[in-house]
Amino acid sequence: MLDTSALETLAPRCKVWLERDGHVALSDWRVELLEKVDACGSLAEAARRMNVPYKTAWYKLKEVEAGLGSSVLLKTSGGARGGGASLTPAGREVLRRYHELVAGIEELVARRFADLFGEPPDSHS
Which are the contacts of 112, defined by CB distance < 8 A and separation ≥ 6? Predict the structure, then answer.
């Protein structure tokens, strides 16, 4: 028999990522990296803000682009302003769709949890 008082403090969690041929193409971490690059205009700065080596960020970016089969960043090199990066239209669209997918899955999980265990105490803990 389940102790229903213990169930009152349970809250559902789920992680979503997209794979191609068993390799991660997009995940929360990779989405965060792309959004930081777009916000600050630099892969190097985004890597610094995420406390990861530039090489790691670059490698993950290449995995995203290979997995999606599309460039997600417009990169400009050097010059007087030092170059930069921003999301391509395809990059913006894939992030929009990813966020929509994750939100939908979280809603589905919350409804399923409520059906099976009752309402979660706080869905944002």
Answer: 12
